[in-house]
Amino acid sequence: MESNSSNTSGSNSTPSDSGSTTGNDTAIAIVLIIVGGIVIVIIAFIIYKCVKKCLRRRKRVELHSGTASSIDEGTTPNNLETSGAAVGFSQVELESMDRFLAEILQERPIKFTSFHLKSFTENFSEKIGSGGFGVVYKGQLPNGIPIAVKVLNSNMDKRAEEQFMAEVGTIGRTYHLHLVRLYGFCFEPTVKALVYEYMENGSLEKHLFSSEKKIGFDKLNEIAIGTAKGIRYLHEECQHRIVHYDIKPGNVLLTVSFSPKVADFGLAKLCDRENTHFTITGARGTPGYAAPELWMPLPVTHKCDVYSFGMLLFEIIGRRRNFDLELQSKEWYPRWVWQKFEIGEIDVVLTIADIEEKYREKAERICKVALWCVQYRPDERPTMSSVVRMLEGEQEIKDPADPFQYMVAHSLESIATSSTGTTADYSSGAARASSSL
Ligand SMILES: Nc1ncnc2c1ncn2[C@@H]1O[C@H](COP(=O)(O)OP(=O)(O)OP(=O)(O)O)[C@@H](O)[C@H]1O
Ligand SMILES: [Mg+2]
């Protein structure tokens, strides 16, 4: 019975064991297939990623070698213009462009390649103007923001390079309603450029000395106040004091609504707020606007900008250059204004400047502030915050002393010399002025 039963149980167990073995095998096979499948998918994904990365790297290398070759063909913008068709935005890495635009929002200057600049300016096709340091072109960022690209002269010497660094280092991180924004720069062995926000109405110089008189006196008064606020920010409000050195109508740019922004910090100097005096090497500024201490062996402070701003105020009042050989009267305008003020005939100045009766009070204010700003002794010149308050009628303006007394001993013409010069030709102008003093 037992043996039967054991037999029976033995005969029953065999098929059942073989059934479970088959089931286990199937389960193992299924798990292996699934795991194998997952491994294959992971390997395929890794290979895909690697290939994509390699392709992207190769594309980047091509992009840079493309840039280099276009530069090799020539170093000037003209050469860039003729070195092939414009490169479309599609070829510019969109990913890095997104990063660039994000950095613009974070107010950090961006490093562009000359390839990008070529793309933004459609091969440097629209020239806006040129100055002592290079040529300015109109362009557009991929998101439609208009820009002005200043391509610096290729024969950049050490000083110019220093100025380039000053602009990128100090101004790239300086943001104010009345300062032109620096979006970025390009610093390649043969192409150095600065990328600014585009100012639709160009420079104040263009409007101030044109016979068209597109801007009325009230707007000019606003422009004077806005410019003063921009300089006040540089001197008194930003982290480090920044001395501009080259305040003049050509460096005040106007937005579409004629709001002013101070431009061109190429000569800017960053100084310690506590360290008020400093020495400078080489002539700076533009003749006619540069304070006496800039071309005489005297200590220089931020007050040299106040002097230049005063000269700008005279030109705003007269709507003429301070020293204009083409005019019948060869007199230096600031000194003539002083002479009229001294004998109580400021009205004559305003009548000749064609200023309407309703603006006379504001205009007289500008005249007096200008006379204060151009005082010979820097410590007698007001601070820019005081200038703003005086221009806005919030601070009483005392009668200024004669700012030009020091000139009695010198030839007036030599001091006002070359007032139409640009920054770059100042060295010779300064040399002339100081040799004749
Ligand atoms: N951000 C800008 N937006 C619009 N136009 C500009 C901009 N920057 C410069 N320009 C124009 O380009 C021209 C040349 O400017 P640039 O600064 O090179 O020379 P400048 O100011 O005349 O002389 P300097 O070299 O002494 O500063 C100017 O007439 C100015 O109107
Ligand atoms: Mg300029």
Automatic annotation (TrEMBL):
- Gene Ontology MF: a single term: protein serine/threonine kinase activity
Please give the start and end residues of each transmembrane region.
27-51
| Protein origin, superkingdom | Eukaryota
Main subcellular location of this protein, as a coarse class = membrane
Does Kinase count among this protein's keywords? yes
Amino-acid positions noted as binding ATP in the UniProt annotation, renumbered to this chain: K150
Pfam families named among the record's database cross-references: PK_Tyr_Ser-Thr
Q: Which GO terms describe its cellular component?
A: membrane
Keyword Membrane part of the UniProt annotation? yes
Q: Which UniProt keywords apply?
A: ATP-binding, Kinase, Membrane, Nucleotide-binding, Serine/threonine-protein kinase, Signal, Transferase, Transmembrane, Transmembrane helix
User: According to its UniProt record, which protein family does this protein belong to?
Assistant: Belongs to the protein kinase superfamily.
What protein is this chain from?
Answer: Protein kinase domain-containing protein
